[in-house]
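BUG: 3D viewer hangs when loading the predicted structure for this chain

Environment: internal workstation, default settings.
Expected: structure renders.
Actual: progress bar stalls at 90%.

Input used:
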Amino acid sequence: MNPFSSPLLADLYQFTMLQSYLEQDMQETAVFELFIRKLPPGRNFMVAAGLEQVLDFLENLKFSPEELAWLATRFRPPLIDYFEQFRFSGDVHAMPEGTLFFPNEPILRITAPLPQAQLIESRLINLLHFETLIASKAARSVLVAPGKLLVDFGMRRAHGAEAGLLAARASYLAGFSGTATVLAGALYDIPLFGTMAHSYIQAHADEMTAFEHFAHANADNVVLLIDTYDTEAAASKVVALAPKLQAAHINIKGVRLDSGDLAAHARNVRQILDQGGLQSATIFASGNLDEYRLQTLLSSQAPIDGFGIGTALDISSDAPAFDCAYKLQEYAGKPRRKRSEGKATWPGRKQVYRFYTTQGEMSHDVVALEENDPCDGRPLLEPVLLAGQRIQSKISLHDIRQRTVAGYSRLPKAMTAPATALDAAPSYPVIISTALQDLAKQFDAEMMTRL
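Structure tokens produced before the viewer hung:
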């Protein structure tokens, strides 16, 4: 049993509802939409991610004999019989990965028989929520540090192995340069970056010997960690070692700082390297970094060429969750709407249209009904899976990354300038169409007659 592809990766209420749906023969077409209700404080937009994992999950969804046997000890035969033949046969419309979006805009729509659409709820939220969360976090560092090498360092403190892998994928999708997680490189073809640990230096009798051994073992990637004992003294040792390595046709690519006053150390080390003839050697910094520390370091003009960002990225420390929901919007051809206080939804299957200024900057979005609600903006939801099968070839992660980064340039300038990217900008306008508002009023009026 693969736990990450199992249909049992769901909440119990999915199964209790399905048992009732089948007994009442409630299997007509349902439309569910996934959206985020509001932005966390300080965030201005989100980056859609995780669709590829959702499509893989849906295409391969089935119950194994072991899963069916386990379920048979808890549920009645009609449900087990249904699961024996279960395959997802519905449609998926979604915003492409890398699309920038805003609250109350559906990023995914499922159209399928009610039991199917209900069963997949928890795993879909799980996948889309997490990758979107991390991609949206990573985007902030990309905007704050344009042109800098940004590397995901966070797998070791991620909340589980799958989270570490998907965080590497989501951060690269959002514009990071690569990851330190080797399996993410193998699975997703993400560029890998890494140097050495302090333990490597400590295991040697002296620092110079450690540097030399590492350089000969990794001649094409000589990046030396220099803050184990005395940062500036270690930088001088690097300069002293360079001619010996050059005689062996080995060049020092850079040094890494991982502690202390990174800006001050970077300035001192840059001077030592430059005076020693290592002007091309880069300085890479790590150690409890996030987008706020990046902004501080770069605004102080610290001579740092790249950053490793770990824990704060992979757990999205300042905003560890989005208020997202997967809600029924239509069943058996009729609109449905949740009216709970503070959690009301807009009924019917919808489309999101994007409008731009004459300069190509995003100006506003309109959420409208998919049918009989004309709108001349660019539709963001696209069909990606019909009758349970993909209708387009997989898009490479590298191409998605390029699309994401290109999208940043079309955001309102207040959201993208490095000096202001972390500040709350004026809310991006998301307009609910008149027809959609009228449908909600009509639905509410009809519901009042039934209460």
